[in-house]
Amino acid sequence: MSESKTSPVDLNTLRQDIDSIDTQIHELLNRRARCAQQVAEVKLAEFTAAQQFESSGDSNSSQQLLFYRPEREAQVLERVKAANNGPLADDTVAFIFREIMSACLALEKPMEVAYLGPGGTFTQAAALKHFGHAVISLPQASIDGVFAKVESGQCHYGVVPVENSTEGMVSHTLDAFINSPLKICGEVELRIRLHLLVSSQTSGKEIKRICAHQQALAQSRRWLDANFPGIERAAVSSNGEAARMAAEEEGVAAIAGDLAESQYGLQRLAGNIEDQPDNTTRFLIIGRENVSPSGRDKTSLVVSARNRPGALFKLLEPFQKADVMLTRIDTRPSRSETWTYVFFIEFEGHREDPKIIDILNTIEQHSIMFKVLGSYPKAAL
Ligand SMILES: C=C(O[C@@H]1C=C(C(=O)O)C=C[C@H]1O)C(=O)O
């Protein structure tokens, strides 16, 4: 005879248990929030003391930057994942703690994050995944617009797409870095799941036109050929814009993600219609401050060498000698001189690690242009 038959657990008792656990979680959450507030007070006191010596009058904006510590947040997320014994999945607990930290930090004043808009795009989803939902996310019309908002100090951080697993690099983002003083402060990876969405007025009726960003159309082309042959497809400026059109025009369907679906109150006719099941986009967090080491970091570098035999080899050799893992390398034509190239190199480690300092010094000697774009924690979610 099974255990549950001899001593059936009563539903009411279970619910009382849940209520009592919730009360404890609630108390602990507020205890944690008070602790985070105290950390903020300590940081502010240290900052104010340091300023008395430097006397560089500073704004509210940089006070907010003082409270937010990307490397510490990455460590918290890694720690909860490592300590997790289930039944909740590691990623699930990390997401919950992501939101807890976001809410604690927003007690001071929510951070403002610029992203490539409009609302409902995957870049907004990436911003919320990285910072949690307590930030204020502000849509910008272009990648340059995102850089400008952060450079001017109007926003604390920015989020821009940098590469897609099926479509390759977003070259505009790489080019923007070359002339910008901003630093890479983090990275986010997002599984891109595309859905066919319609408004309630279109649901059940004929679809006359399917709108989406050209990348989303390309990423679901085979599915569309099989399921909607002969229906007009229109490329629009973003998935968010496609969702807005579907919400307003009868007979229009959009291909977009979860966030656009909920923001525009659309219905899902078909889910996960992307042709590549592991379709992923990587985004970068850009900011004005360097990030301290978290222990699990990456560094991005842009460098240009004299155009002569073995130039690229000379740039890469120090990594091999020091046994440092390269995570990506890309080439872009240099804007200043025809047929010269700049290389974007990404590798594991932080610019303050002694081994990395040596590598960077060697590379700088072999290059005509050299710029560390930033060291930042590897994506933890
Ligand atoms: C509490 C701190 O400050 C902020 C809040 C954090 C949190 O809630 O865990 C973590 C890092 C910071 O963004 C801290 O630096 O420890």
TrEMBL record:
GO BP annotation list: chorismate metabolic process; L-phenylalanine biosynthetic process
Origin species: Zhongshania antarctica
SMART domains recorded: CM_2
Pfam families: ACT, CM_2, PDT
UniProt-recorded name of the protein: Bifunctional chorismate mutase/prephenate dehydratase
GO cellular component: cytoplasm
Residues of the Prephenate dehydratase domain: 112-288
PANTHER family per UniProt: PREPHENATE DEHYDRATASE P PROTEIN, PREPHENATE DEHYDRATASE-RELATED
Ranges where the Chorismate mutase domain occurs: 5-112
Main subcellular localisation: cytoplasm
UniProt cross-references to InterPro entries, sorted A to Z: ACT-like_dom_sf, ACT_dom, Chor_mutase/pphenate_deHydtase, Chorismate_II_sf, CM_dom_sf, CM_II_prokaryot, G/b/e-P-prot_chorismate_mutase, Preph_deHydtase
